[in-house]
Amino acid sequence: MTVKLVIAALLLLVAGTGLYHTLKPLPAGIGFLGSEAPLRDSKLLTDVTVHNADGSTRLEHNIFDEVLRQIANAERFILVDMFLFNDSKPDGATGYRPLARQLTEALIQRKQAVPDIRIVVISDPINTFYGGTRSPWFDALNEAGITVVETNLARLRDSNPAWSAIWRVCCQWLGNSPDGGWLPNALKGGPVTLRSYLALPNFKANHRKLIVTDDDDRLRGLVTSANPHDGSSRHSNIGLSFTGPAVADLLESEQAVLAMSGVEAPFIHNAIAEIRQAQGVRAEQAPEGSIQVVTESAILASALGIIESASAGDRIDLAMFYLSHRRIIQALTDAHQREADIRVLLDANNDAFGHEKNGIPNRPVAAELVSAGIPVRWCHTRGEQCHSKLLIRRGREGSADILLGSANFTRRNLDDLNLETSVRLRTSRSSAVASDAVRFFERHWQHGPESDPVLSHPYETWADESGFKYWRYRLMEATGMSTF
Question: Is the pTM of this model over 0.85?
């Protein structure tokens, strides 16, 4: 009887822990919805990987060139928040850009050139395999006097409660050590501990990708889908650089990450105050439209707002690495029924850093969209990923509504489980940023198998209407037992 009571108590403890950590209050500042601010000095940045018919590959990449430029010009302030910050790549692979080293060296060189500059780097603990190994890049930054913060993910809600409830009861108290590794490192690098592998299935992340620096007499923000990760350096991505009061909102959203990780950064508060104070003082050019910083579930609200506002005569273009969120899929279907013109460009989910994938979730979702009458095309990839996250609505009256940033359209990315940052733009169809975004999408959509270079393929190329895969995707999406 005693054994049964102990077992029952343990089961109740695990169940209660799982329930609490899926419903618990969020840390302050999560799900941030910035105010609409004037869009100023905006520049759309794209990374496009082009495969030519002769088998050669051309990288038309400029996002990290801009990141490095901003760092080189900074005099007072740099904040970096990037998800993947390491040099792992497929075994034996060549032709990858050493982004982790380039970013690390740029930050250290700037610190050495301007010793009084304040630099903080925020990243995800996956880069040290959750404390089971050391990051040579983080160590080098620390030695140079640069603050490195590994985000405290335990404060977030659990996206995979079936495992995380057990983890929180049995294992999280064990901590971890970078010196006790004895198992092969699945993420490359030195050996890691069993505790690292026990932490991995929690499937949560600080998935943000952004930088803020002072740029001449103002602060400049850059929000992107690109990582300083060597194995990701051939991915196609998108980003936006901008100045103006929205940068203060970007910094405010980052303060929430630092606070939940137990780090105080008063100089960020001072930078926010500086931007707020400058409003109305500095003579600014006419805005190019408006911009709104959105994180976590505020991204979902923005995406739904854009799609649900579309009707006959409007066009919606969506380019997405992972598409699986049920509310987004339903909103697209409903907009199609309202006779909005919708096109969806997806990664076929073929590859992940040298490993073959099974096409989940995008291929089952594509089958669902096509059956509803929505056209789908696949990005043409050869080992890399079509990693952009871009939504465009062009209104028949001449308006443009754009959403881009770090967030995939999945439950984990949009339901306050991961940390994410995107920006929503409201502008005219003829504006430079809208024209560039449309050009990026159209270029991929129009360059099909008959073109040189090929940038996309018709739906039939990777069509997969397997009922088993569809319901497998639905189960993975609903339970969180997935990496998407």
Answer: yes
